[in-house]
Design brief:
The protein is built from seven helices and ten strands. It has helices at about 45-50, 95-105, 110-120, 135-150, 165-185, 195-200, 220-225, and strands at about 5-10, 20-25, 30-35, 60-65, 65, 80, 155-160, 185-190, 205-210, 210-215. The protein has a six-stranded mixed beta sheet with strand order 6-7-8-3-9-10, with helices on both faces. A four-stranded antiparallel beta sheet has the order 2-1-4-5, covered by helices on one side. Strand 9 and strand 10 (about 210-215) form a beta hairpin. Helix 2 (about 95-105) packs across helix 3 (about 110-120), helix 2 runs parallel beside helix 4 and helix 3 (about 110-120) crosses helix 4. The chain is globular and about 45 Å long. The structure holds adenosine-5'-diphosphate (2 copies). One adenosine-5'-diphosphate (ADP) binds near residues 15, 17, 19, 37 and 44. The site of one adenosine-5'-diphosphate has 12 residues, from helix 1.
Length: about 230
C-alpha cells in the first residue's frame, strides 16, 4: 500500500497548452479517488503524470515516501488498467498474465502463484488456456485487471476502464472492481466521465475543471449540498 501526494502539480504540453494547474491532493493508503469533470478538463493528463507517461512540468509527486517525478513508469510501483484491453491476441490468458513477470525475471513458481491467485480472484481460472478472442468483453476486462493485479503494485491507476463495455456489464464490473479494490486495500486513482460510476466507486471524488481542482469530497458531501 502507499499514499500518493500531489504537491502543486502542473502540466504544460510542448507547444504551450496548459492542461493542469496547481493540483494539491493527498490520497490516503487504500483510498479510492475518482477523478471526474468535463472532457478536456485534464483528467487523463493528471493520471498519466502519476503513471509516468507524461512528464511533470511543475510541482512534486510522491508515491509512498519517494518523489517519483523523474522515475520511469516501471519504477513507480503502480499498475494501470486501460479501457482498450491491451491484451496480446496471440497469447493465452495465462501468458497474457505472466508475460510482464517473465520479462522482469520472476521465478516460474512465483509467476504461477501470482497468476493463479489473480485468476482465482477474478474468476477467470477456467479460461487460462484460451486466447483473448475466445472471451467475452467482461472476461477480457477481467484479464486486463489481472495484468495489473499480478504486479502487486502499491497503487492502481484506472483510465476509463469500463467505457468499452455495454451498460449492463459496466454496472456489474464497477461493483466487481470496487469490491476487489477494497479487499486488496490498494490505493487507487480512477478516471471516468460517468457520474454514476464515479458516485458508486469513490471514497472521495475530485472534480477537475479547466485543469484545476474545483471540488473534493465524499459522494455524500458533494451531492447532498443545497
Ligand atoms: P480529459 O482527460 O479530462 O478529457 P485531457 O487531460 O485529455 O482531458 O486534456 C486536457 C487538455 O490538454 C485539453 O485541452 C487537451 O486538448 C490538452 N492535451 C491533451 N493531450 C495533449 C497533448 N499531447 N498535447 C497538447 N495538448 C494536449
Ligand atoms: P507487460 O505489459 O506484460 O507487463 P512488459 O513487462 O514488457 O509487459 O512491460 C513493458 C513496460 O510497461 C514496462 O516498463 C512495465 O513495467 C510497464 N507496464 C506493463 N504493464 C503495466 C501496467 N499495467 N501498468 C503500468 N506499467 C506497466
Amino acid at each position: 500500500m502507499a499514499s500518493i501526494f500531489m504537491d502543486n502539480l502542473g502540466k504544460v504540453y510542448t507547444g504551450g497548452v496548459r492542461a493542469v494547474t496547481g493540483v494539491n491532493l493527498d490520497i490516503a493508503d487504500g483510498e479510492m479517488i475518482v477523478l471526474v469533470g468535463p472532457s478536456g478538463c485534464g483528467k487523463s493528463t493528471l493520471l498519466r503524470m502519476v503513471a509516468g507517461l507524461e512528464t511533470i512540468s511543475e510541482g512534486s509527486l510522491k508515491i509512498g515516501d519517494r518523489v517519483v517525478n523523474n522515475l520511469e513508469p516501471a519504477d513507480r510501483d503502480i499498475a494501470m488498467v486501460f479501457q482498450n484491453y491491451a491484451l496480446y491476441p496471440h497469447m493465452t490468458v495465462y501468458n497474457n498474465l505472466a508475460y510482464g513477470l517473465k520479462n522482469r525475471g520472476f521465478a516460474k513458481s512465483e509467476i504461477q502463484r501470482r497468476v493463479n491467485e489473480a485468476a482465482q480472484m477474478l474468476e477467470i481460472g477456467q479460461f487460462l488456456d484460451r486466447k483473448p478472442r475466445q472471451l467475452s468483453g467482461g472476461q477480457r476486462q477481467r484479464v486486463a485487471m489481472g495484468r495489473a493485479l499480478v504486479r502487486e503494485p502499491a497503487a492502481f491507476l484506472f483510465d476509463e476502464p469500463l467505457s468499452n463495455l455495454d451498460a449492463k456489464l459496466r454496472v456489474q464490473m464497477r461493483v466487481e472492481i470496487r469490491q476487489l479494490q477494497k479487499r486488496l486495500g490498494t490505493t487507487s486513482l480512477y478516471v471516468t466521465h460517468d457520474q454514476l460510476e464515479a458516485l458508486t466507486m469513490a471514497d472521495r471524488l475530485v472534480v477537475l475543471n479547466g485543469g484545476q481542482i474545483e471540488q473534493v469530497g465524499t459522494p455524500m458531501e458533494l451531492y447532498s449540498r443545497p
